[in-house]
Amino acid sequence: MALFLAISLLAACTGNPGSSSARSCSSGLESAFKELDLAKAQGFGGTVDWGKAAGLLAAAKVQYEFEHYPNCIEKIDRARVYIRRSKGG
Predict the structure, then answer these.
(1) What is the pTM of this model?
(2) Are 75 and 28 in contact (CB under 8 A)?
(3) Hey, what's the torsion of the CAs at 24, 75, 64, 18, to 10 degrees?
(4) Please, are residues 89 and 41 in contact by the beta-carbon 8 Å criterion?
(5) Domain that holds residue 30
(6) Residue 61 exposure: Cα atoms within 13 Å on the Cβ side
(7) Helices and strands (H, E) in the chain, number of each type
(8) Residue 9 lies inside a defined structural domain of this protein
(9) Which uninterrupted H or E stretch holds 22?
């Protein structure tokens, strides 16, 4: 019984790769990395914010790989705050 419960819990933790959350995570990662690269290229002085954003995006990528899409999306949203801050906005 305990094994069945453990397997059920693990199955509930994984996402559906074809879900809207998965697509949102994937496209969010792509666009957030582009936003970060653009902010760096424009030379704004937010290197600490760039580092925080890059760390969050790396963590979001891990969440994506493990199919934890809501966590991925949350980290992307937090990273975008740092990207905006690095540009002075």
Answers:
(1) 0.78
(2) no
(3) -20
(4) no
(5) 22-86
(6) 11
(7) 4, 0
(8) no
(9) helix 20-41
